[in-house]
Amino acid sequence: MRAAALWLVALVIFGVIASGCIGGEEAKTSSAEVQLTGDITKDLVEIGKVLEQNGVKEVKFSAWGSGDPNSVMRVYGIVEAARRINKIWADNGINVKIVVTETHYVASFQDAYKEYLSKQPLGQAGDFFVNSYAFLPTLADEGYILDITEYAKTYQSVVDDFYPSLIEASKYNGKLYGLPQDTEARPLYIRKDVAQRIGFDLSGLDEKVKNGEFTWSDVYYWAKKAKEEGAAEWGLIHRKGSAHPDLIQFIFAFGGKLYDPNTGKLVVDVPAVYKWLYVEWKFARDGLLPEDIMSWDWAKQIHPAVVEGRTLFDIGGTWYWTEWQTKQYYAKGGTPRGLKPEEVRDWFYYTLFPAGEKGDKPVTLSQPFVWMINSKAGQLNPKYDELKDVYHKLAFLMLIKASDPDINAIHSVISAHLPVRKEAAKLIKDEKWLNDLKALNLDLSDEVKSNIRDIVQATVNPINAQFLADVSYMLEYTHLAPAHPKYPALADIFKEAVDKVLRGEMTPEEAVNYIIQKVQADPELAQNVEIQGEIPKDWKFPQG
Amino acid sequence: MRDVETRPRRYERLIILALLLASLPLILGFFLLVLSSFSTEMVTNLDPRSFHPTLENWINLFQGKIATTGGIRVNIWRITLNTLIVALGVAGVVTGISALAGYSLSRIDFRGRKTMMVLLLVLHAFPGVALIVGVYLLYRLTFPQNYEVVGLYSFAYVILARAALEIPMSIWLMKGFFDTIPWEFEWSGIIDGASRITVWRRIMLPLIKPGILAVALFAFLAGWQDIIYVRTFLVYPTLATFIEANIEAEYSHMPLIAAAGTFYLLPTIIFFITAQQLLLQGYSGGIKG
Q1: pLDDT tens figures, B78-122
Q2: What is the Cα–Cα distance from B244 to A108, expressed in whole angstroms?
Q3: Where are the beta strands (DSSP E) in chain B?
Q4: Do B235 and A451 touch (CB under 8 A)?
Q5: Which of A72, A297, A336 shows the shortest C-beta gap to B52?
Q6: Whether residue A15 has pLDDT greater than 90
Q7: Do A336 and B40 make contact, defined as CB atoms within 8 angstroms?
Q8: Assembly ipTM
Q9: Among A19, A302, B5, B279, which is least packed by CB within 10 angstroms?
């Protein structure tokens, strides 16, 4: 018995020591150095020469992406970048080739993140990983993605062409860990036909929203009128779930905040949260917003209610514009079908998310996707230990190439996300370029052309491009949800509270107290969340 | 005297009806899944107007398209092959080990036999999830440095790890089958000069074929439907992980996922239809201690 116990103790000690050894191997210093200069052709040629001298003829990389089916340029951008670099090498007589061995793309970006987390330590994750900026701090903290701050300094002109707020979203602790890939805005859509039936004049409305003259009290007024006059079944339809930050916009629209940069903590801004929940409660109590919307089905209830004109207002994303065209949500004629671009244009007005009340500002909220490089990028290639720095710099240059304005613009047009570079924003306004894209008469690899052909056919047209150009200004009003590891847990509590006020199970005041209690009951959340302010006394909605 | 318990026939229909009602949610769920796979939209609300017949979902699935328009192509056959390798691997390992161990526990009175039998039951009580941290640690410790063999290693590891979860119960099942074979069969072989292993292989195994097939089937299904171990240890996708990664309520074309789900169910349905007698024997054989 004693011997058995000794064996057991020895086994445990061995396990502990062995686990400590995992991943503890020291990286050897690179023997081949390449200095980046900011001239991409020159840098690529230099890297190509070093690889050639070391006998490397083929460099293997893989790209992991996720998201809606129209956003596949998130991985094909890397494939195209490889082709462009291969061409530069071939033109300069360098006999090296990049091969993208895997384009791994799944629908759920949360699942993709979990998969990356579990496989990166084993060296089995993609060399390029595109995902929400919200995960960047955790990945950077774990050392799973490459710090590209120094590399990016030599390509400052390219970095400067990105919208600054998006570059900030790609940083953690002041260091740059990726390049923005796309972003979006979340407009308030208004059905023009319903508005016309109730005498709601939309001309110049976006200016009134920008100036804060048209607030959520006005949204309520018109929603109620639409319902009372029988012009629409609902006044407002919005998205559901905690991962979607659409509703979080209310906090910013009521002048609140979600994160305190001074303390690094999340914030429950009580006055703003109370006003948000009050608006939801009031809309639901007056029958303007379905009280069970948080459990509605996306494809059978939420989208059909909007595209069939059963609501006056809808809070959605810019990508709805093409989604309504490519998915069969409209079933009024019998057989479900997608909308025609002309129908989307003629039926929907769009504007910023209005200010909560007079004196507040309109907002939108973005959740940019960021191209990140695996800190083990290139490890499946020959002489990785000696050439690690070269492979990493090559991976960075691939990101620079994948961020070429035309690649970014193609992604924007076919997925209705907003461009992240100013040069790309110019391109989507260029009619000739759009026609070339429609005909796929662009300098793209055959693989990319073949895989985006039917998306291009379904989405590329002047109406969609004009929409993107029109909503680009919204980025000036954008807020970002906090990239804090505990934010998803807090967002879940917000979701529960919204559901309870919509269903009438709690008053807005009770729901705010519920949020506070839930936060304080979770030790980790309690440590990471500050409760600020108090429920305002005598606050009225709607306001006169 | 009858050798089985019987009850008056007048209650039979009532009992069948009650059982049918109790099973209805499950049957309905599977029925709607299959129906949705042949429809342009999900038939989830029992509204016949939701059903718009099409073969598009199945065509897209077999072409490896995860969306109705363009996008990424996946090789669904390769994914199916991965699933099959895991399932067959688990079935092979579990059957081999439990056939040997079941025989030993049934026929040989070695030291610690009873303790081992009790411990096997205890092991069976451990859920796979509870063991995963330790299993992961071992995975990391034995992970190959040579990346070229990682694929092979991950297949071998996931098969062994998943098989380990199935082996305790399978040994008990197999022991039950060996217990039903009279000693005389074995004695006659031994008297004729056959070794123990020859007796096991040439006399006993043919006699417990239904048991072997039942254990192999259970193990195959365990490997086929596993998601936690496959997701943690296998570097390639299987049908389970493919479906899981592509269920995104807002983006996914759910009828296509319904087709993938139905496709994933097919082996299970086929096995249960063709082998239900065998499985029943498996259960009845396994409970004899």
Answers
A1: 999 999 999 999 999 999 999 999 999 998 888 999 999 999 888
A2: 9
A3: none
A4: no
A5: A336
A6: no
A7: yes
A8: 0.70
A9: B5
User: CA B26, CA B18: separation in Å to the nearest integer?
Assistant: 14
Q: Is residue A37 exposed (0-12), middle (13-18) or buried (19+ Cβ within 10 Å)?
A: exposed
In this structure, what are the phi and psi dihedrals at residue A478, rounded to the nearest 5 degrees? -80, 150
Nearest Cα of chain A lies from the Cα of B50 at a distance, in angstroms, of: 9
Contact A451/B71, CB-based, under 8 Å? yes
Strand bridging mode A478-480 / A364-366:
parallel
Asked if A365 and A252 count as a contact pair (C-beta separation under 8 A), the reply is yes
Q: What is the CA radius of gyration of chain B?
A: 23
A122 touches chain B (CB under 8 A): yes
Q: Is A22 on the interface with B (CB under 8 A)?
A: yes
pLDDT tens digits along A246-260 = 889 999 999 999 999
Which residues, 6+ apart, have CB-to-CB distance to B125 below 8 Å?
A: none
Is residue A20's pLDDT more than 90? no
The residue type of B262 is T
CA distance B10 to A92: 90
Whether the CB of A19 is below 8 Å from some CB of chain B: the reply is yes
Residue B18, SS3 per DSSP: helix
Query: Is residue B40 very low, low, confident or very high in pLDDT (cuts 50, 70, 90)?
Result: confident
Report whether A406 contacts A149 (CB < 8 A): no
C-alpha to C-alpha distance for A305 and A194, rounded to whole angstroms? 13
> Cα dihedral sign for A352, A356, A361, A367?
negative
Expressed in percent and rounded to 5, the helix, strand and coil fractions of chain A are 50, 15, 35
Q: What is the pLDDT of residue A190?
A: 98
Model confidence pLDDT, tens digit, residues B250-263: 777 888 999 999 99
Any bridge partners for residue B189, and if so which? Answer: none
- Reference A404, options A433, A367, A374; nearest CA is A433
CB neighbours of residue A424 within 10 Å: 24
User: Among A18, A297, A455, whose Cβ lies nearest the Cβ of B70?
Assistant: A455
**Three-state SS for B249?**
coil
- Identity of the amino acid at A72: V
The answer to whether the peptide bond before residue A542 is cis (omega within 30 degrees of 0) is yes
Contact B41 A22 (CB under 8 A): no
CB nearest to A335's CB, from B42, B52, B249:
B52
From the centroid of its chain, how far is CA A125? 21
Predicted pLDDT at B71:
66
- The span from the CA of A490 to the CA of A267, in Å, is 9
In total, the C-beta contacts within 8 angstroms joining chain A to chain B are: 97
